[in-house]
């Protein structure tokens, strides 16, 4: 990539997509394209094809997706499956038809089997059953990975699938019914502090372990991958192998420890109560990030620092 390369960020207003835009702008890229859902419905194949034919982007970051936490995934599996399949297939078809050079597809660590060995290596994909609460979403993302690999094998494209761990940061969704665990904790703890509520209820046992990646670190990793020299990039997208690479910190903690860290940042002195009638989900999920580390990329934002930045952004939005 050069600073004038035409780059399309699909989902540029979402958590990941907006961070990609910030990172590209920070690095001096000037020819960025984004469309809101109202301007372009990526579930519509004809509109998507017309957009690509008109704009002719050279690089695509496919961050557009229907996302949510355990409750949303468990409650609306049809929507999570169908919406993501349509977006992926339409964008990939149009990108190939218009000669997109590099495409980075953004997946999710939930693609990996529920009970696979830890830390999770890329080759563990499809080696066991998925977590039932988000299986539909995971299968849609697995289809996106296979789509990238299939285009690489059949048509010689150079498309890469990046699998981030749990993301958080500015621009997150704080809806208690649809958000992921960290933004939900920030909101619940903040509201308990403001209202003087002496305790906060946490879903499940609090013992599952999770890894978290500050979203601006993810964006830095994706731009890093997209701008690799041909030799290193071609190794990652060799059609003889699945074009999959993990992006994370390689470190995890329990949900209870995460809640206590959030409480410290927010300044909440109440107690936590575990609602064990609610599901825990996968008991441990931490990525093996040795592949991207060998390319000399590492996450730079420590978790507590990232939560501080996220809480400040949450406070600004509340104001």
From TrEMBL:
InterPro entries: Epimerase_deHydtase, GDP_fucose/colitose_synth, NAD(P)-bd_dom_sf. The active site is at 137 (proton donor/acceptor). NADP(+) binds at residues 11-17, 106-109, 141, 164-167, 180. CDD domains: GDP_FS_SDR_e. SUPFAM superfamilies: NAD(P)-binding Rossmann-fold domains (SSF51735). Substrate binds at residues 188, 203, 210, 280. Pathway: Nucleotide-sugar biosynthesis; GDP-L-fucose biosynthesis via de novo pathway; GDP-L-fucose from GDP-alpha-D-mannose: step 2/2. Its EC number is 1.1.1.271. GO terms for molecular function: GDP-L-fucose synthase activity; isomerase activity; NADP+ binding. GO terms for biological process: 'de novo' GDP-L-fucose biosynthetic process. It holds the Pfam family Epimerase. Belongs to the NAD(P)-dependent epimerase/dehydratase family. Fucose synthase subfamily. Catalyzes the two-step NADP-dependent conversion of GDP-4-dehydro-6-deoxy-D-mannose to GDP-fucose, involving an epimerase and a reductase reaction. This is GDP-L-fucose synthase. It comes from Methylobacter tundripaludum (strain ATCC BAA-1195 / DSM 17260 / SV96). The gene is fcl.
